[in-house]
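BUG: 3D viewer hangs when loading the predicted structure for this chain

Environment: internal workstation, default settings.
Expected: structure renders.
Actual: progress bar stalls at 90%.

Input used:
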Amino acid sequence: MAGEAEVQVSHFLDEHGVGAFQIKLILWSILIALIDGYDIGAIAFAAPSLIKEWHVAPKELGLVLSASNIGVLFGSQIFGWIGDNYGRKTALIATNLLFGVFTFAAAYAIDLTQLTWLRFIAGLGIGGVIPNVVAINAESAPRNLRATLAIIAVGTVPMGGALAGFASAALVPTYGWQILFQIGGIVPVVIALAAIIGLPESIKYMTLHESQRSKMVALLAAIRPDYQVPPNARFVIEDEKQFPSSNPTYLFHDGLAVITPLTWLMFALNLMGYFFLISWTPTLMGAAHVSPGTAALAGAALQVGGTVGALTLCWWLQRHRFLAIALLVATFFAGALVLGIQSGINVVGAMIYPTSLRANGSGWQLGIGRLGAIIGPFMGALFVGLPVQQLYIWSALPFAAGAVVTFLIHVLNQRRLSQHPELQKGQ
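Structure tokens produced before the viewer hung:
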């Protein structure tokens, strides 16, 4: 360590590398991400059954398919702020409890209005998961693996959506669409209760909060039993410039005035196409006279491709960051890349914002980006009468535009780092 009165936390993590603590954290994160993805995708797989049982036209599903994304628009910022001020662990427990309870209640909705409101409230909780999962992993990893571990954690969100598809194919014919929401409600509540005891807190969050000192000392001793924290030592994150609070105005400081809104646009464009694909694929397959089981499996295959894409590409994304994302989004015609790259851009906030702003910055990106996620299903409802092939061609346009925006972010961020070399170590 740099001195007897100071513990440099980033250096400590770099020296230790990946050990039992990071593995435990990533396993918890994967579990949370899976059920988050399941609950995001469940409504899409319930939609074909709703059309038949409630005798509604496909175009009437636009609002209910977008309802959780409207909730995410607000929830990602609310729980991002909670994560920065009260801890990533606290935020993740609260989010799982919230969306678990209201997802379970959705199983007993009797019409589209009830279901829409329940999905909206569940979306508030869903929105808080990704910003805090990204933050808790990036802040507990050695410098050369921050992006990689964060991408692995959120890269399983599409796999959770695939699980909803498999559950739909296997269980809905026997138990009805309600079983999707019953599973999606019970599991996150169980995870939240278990997380109270088992989920670790972010190391860097604890570094910034003196109230966490005793836990920080115990954690460092658990990671490295041979290391003794010097008496009255001050914990510091030496490679980050912190801000006085998590006030969103700081998201525009230090050369981020243009980059921050451009990342919001990048999220909006990718999520517009992303949620069109995952929301409408099961219904469109049904419209193409594919059997319900096959339609559900088609939607699941799309989600599996997203997870495979994210995990396959995480090493390249770690090294090339925004440039890699821009080049890969350009290949929008490949389903695995479409969903996989969303997992990549989810870690953007973790790379450009410091610990004091990380969850809030990620929350604003995901929240503003959700405007695109809301528009995507509505556009599907508007154009649902078109041939399926034309619908998928139109859905490719946001990805092409997103590739241009992301390349621009890459250029601006490289210029920012050259002008502020002290920020390079933090990325």
